[in-house]
Amino acid sequence: MFSDPLFLFVVIACLAVAAVLLLGIANFGKPGPDAAKKSNKYMRWRIYAQAGAVVVILIFVFFRRMGG
User: Fold this and answer.
1) Which of 13, 48, 59, 62 could pair with 53 in a Cys bridge, judged by C-beta atoms 3.0 to 4.6 Å apart?
2) What's the CA gap between 18 and 60, in Å, rounded?
3) N-terminal to C-terminal alpha carbon distance within the chain
4) Burial letters for 31-47: b for 16+ Cβ neighbours within 10 Å, e otherwise?
5) 57 vs 51: CA distance, rounded Å
6) Interior CA angle at 25 toward 46 and 20, to 5°?
7) Computed from CA positions of residues 28, 34, 36, 39, in that sequence, does the dihedral angle turn out positive or negative?
8) pLDDT: which is higher, 52 or 1
9) What is the 3-class SS of the chain, one letter each residue?
10) In this predicted model, what pLDDT tens digit does every residue of 42-51 receive, in sequence order?
């Protein structure tokens, strides 16, 4: 499974989502308006990363069902 490049893209995409999520959560505890702006920016990035991960997962499933 790990030799499959598409599966590796799925893993990388999921790890990227987790990393951005952790950055956003870590920033929630910090005081000040700058921290709140950063947290919102990280959460926005998380949404984009999740959308990308969903697309990669759908492509993975599509090609695996086609027998590729």
Assistant:
1) 13
2) 19
3) 13
4) eeeeeeebbeebbebbe
5) 10
6) 30
7) negative
8) 52
9) CCCCHHHHHHHHHHHHHHHHHHHHHHHHCCCCHHHHHHHHHHHHHHHHHHHHHHHHHHHHHHHHHCCC
10) 999 999 999 9
Nearest CA to 14 out of 59, 60, 56 is that of: 56
How is residue 33 written in tokens?
């308006």
Residue owning tokens 């959308």: 51
| 8 A C-beta contact, residue 13 and residue 49 | yes
Contact 63, 55 (CB under 8 A): no
Q: Which residue has the tokens 């598409």?
A: 6
Output the pTM of the full model: 0.81
